[in-house]
Design goal:
The chain is 60% helix and 10% strand. It has 269 residues and is of the alpha/beta class.
Length: 269
C-alpha cells in the first residue's frame, strides 16, 4: 500500500504508516514465538510448555488488548465509510475466532496440539492484519472529513507508546556496521559446533517481518538457552537492535560467515 498517495494529508499518511508498522511488529513477534513452539514440540516437550506459557501471556497482554482497541476505535470509524462497513463487521467477527484460538492454545492437552493451535492463530492474525493494512487503513486515510490521525491517537491511548516503537530499533540495514556493528553482543571467535538449540531460518521470512520475528523468538528463550539464527547476509543491524532492546542479555557467536549463508548462535545469558 502506498499511504502517501492514498492519504488525504501527510498527517494521515503518517498515521497509516504508524498503524501498519505496529501490525507488522505484532505479526512478526507472534511468528517468532510460534516458530519456537513448533520446534520445541518436536524436540523438547518440557521446553515447549514454557514457550506455550509465554505465548499465551503475549496474546493476553499484547495481542488481544490491541484487537479490543481496534474494535473500540478503528472499526467504528470504518463503519462511517460505506465501502468499509461490511469489512469492519467481518473483522470484528474474526476477533471471536482469534479469542477461540488463544483459548484452544491455552487448553491444548499436548505440546504438538498447542503448536497446531498456535500455527492456526498465526495464520488468522496475519490475514487480519493484512486486511487492516491493505483495505481498512487506505479507505480511512483517504476519506475526507474523517481523521485517521485521531483514530490512531485513540489506539495509542489504549495501547500505550508501544504503538510508536517500530521494530525495536532505528538502525537501517545498510548502515549496520557503521551504526555499532554487532552492538556489543558478539563473541566473534566463530567456528565450533552448534549446541542443540532451535534453528530460526529467516531467509524466507518477509523483510518487513524479519527483525520482529527474531525478537519474538528470543523472547521465548529461557536463560541459558538460545537459537541458531540463519540469514542470507551478516545481520549486523539486527544484532545492534537486539542490544538496544535488551542490553547485555544475549551473547552471539558466529559459526558460519558467508558468502551465501551466515549462522549465529544467540544465547540468553
Amino acid at each position: 500500500m502506498n499511504t502517501v498517495t492514498l492519504a488525504s494529508t501527510p498527517d494521515e499518511a503518517a498515521a497509516a504508516t504508524a498503524a501498519e508498522t505496529y501490525h507488522t511488529r505484532l505479526a512478526g513477534e507472534l511468528a517468532g514465538r510460534v516458530a519456537m513452539l513448533r520446534q520445541a514440540a518436536e524436540r523438547d516437550p518440557g521446553a515447549a510448555e514454557d514457550i506455550r506459557t509465554g505465548l499465551v501471556d503475549f496474546c493476553e497482554r499484547v495481542l488481544l488488548p490491541y484487537f479490543a482497541a481496534e474494535e473500540t476505535v478503528l472499526y467504528p470509524a470504518a463503519h462511517q465509510v460505506t465501502e468499509a462497513r461490511l469489512l469492519a463487521e467481518s473483522l470484528i467477527s474474526e476477533r471471536g475466532g482469534i479469542l477461540a484460538l488463544v483459548g484452544a492454545l491455552r487448553a491444548a492437552p499436548t505440546a504438538s496440539a498447542a503448536a497446531a493451535e498456535a500455527r492456526a492463530l498465526e495464520v488468522l492474525c496475519g490475514e487480519h492484519f493484512a486486511k487492516d493494512n491493505d483495505l481498512v487503513l487506505p479507505l480511512l486515510a483517504g476519506q475526507p472529513g474523517l481523521s485517521l490521525s485521531a483514530v490512531v491517537a485513540g489506539l495509542r491511548e489504549l495501547c500505550g507508546p508501544d504503538l510508536d516503537a517500530g521494530d525495536g530499533g532505528t538502525v537501517p540495514e545498510e548502515d549496520g556496521e557503521r551504526a555499532g556493528g554487532c552492538g556489543g553482543v558478539c563473541g566473534c571467535g566463530g567456528g565450533g559446533d552448534e549446541p542443540e538449540v532451535p534453528e530460526l531460518d529467516v531467509r524466507s521470512v518477509p523483510h518487513a517481518l524479519r527483525h520482529a520475528t527474531v525478537f519474538g523468538a528470543l523472547d521465548s528463550v529461557r536463560v541459558g538457552g538460545g537459537i541458531v539464527l540463519v540469514a542470507h547476509h551478516d545481520p549486523l543491524p539486527l544484532l545492534a537492535q537486539i542490544e538496544q532492546r535488551s542490553p547485555g542479555r544475549f551473547f552471539v557467536e558466529y559459526t558460519e560467515r558467508g558468502p551465501e549463508v551466515w549462522r549465529l548462535v544467540i544465547t540468553h545469558r
